[in-house]
Amino acid sequence: MLRLIFVCFTLLALTRTDGLVQDFCIADLTGPETPSGYTCKPSANATVSDFVYTGLRTPGPKIEIIKAAVSPAFTAQFPGLNGQGVSLLRLDLDPAGVIPLHTHPGAAELLLVTKGVVVSGFISTANQVFVATLHKGDITVIPRGVLHFQINGGGSTAVAFASFSSENPGLQITDFALFANSLPSEIVEKVTFLDDAQVKKLKAALGGSG
Q: What span, in angstroms and rounded, lies between the C-alpha atoms of 167 and 145?
């Protein structure tokens, strides 16, 4: 038995890759982004500023069509996140603000409300709907890849912070995927059951063509 244990530990030692493990990998944003992230800048050149990001202190630019500001802290904004599997995003929603149906293919989301009221919901792949009204201090989890949304649920500005289980969670907004590109209107009408006038109206509003 002792001999078997010794053999097992020997095999584990031979197959370990500790020599390849690094404490961090500050993204070199001048290079290409790959499925496994960015390449690392030399660790000897790292400074404390690589591990601090102050861009979420204030709201980002407002997107008028949704009456909200979305301020991400992903790898592109915060290179120190590269390879760490976490990221953050700030939402500032005007009283009429809405984050329309969208998905994050690469990450689960944890939403924390810090001001106002936010109605948050998601739709499972079984078409089961989960909607909650969140107040300051409340959190909700949104599973990876499912359609979800946020709406201001009160009469004043709402602020929330979303954390993700990836440094680059990805984003696809359903409305923009359907109406903000050159997909022919005839096809959009067939796959959405909308009439031609509705499709043309939405394409005009979101910048699509065809």
A: 15
Check: pTM over 0.90? Answer yes or no: no
In-domain check, residue 39: no
Q: Is 102 annotated as a binding residue?
A: yes
pLDDT digits (tens, 9 = 90+) for 102-138: 999 999 999 999 999 999 999 999 999 999 999 999 9
Q: How many CA atoms lie within 13 A of 146 on its CB side?
A: 19
State how far the Cα of 154 lies from the Cα of 116, in Å rounded to an integer.
Answer: 7
Are 130 and 182 found together in one domain?
A: no
Looking up residue 139, the CATH number of its domain turns out to be 2.60.120.10
Please state the three-class secondary structure of 78-98 as a single string.
Answer: CHHHCCCCCEEEEEEECCCCE
Q: Are residues 96 and 162 in the same domain?
A: yes
Encoded amino acid at 78, one letter:
F
Q: Could you list the residue range(s) of the whole structural domain that residue 201 is in?
A: 177-206
Annotated binding-site residue? 135: no
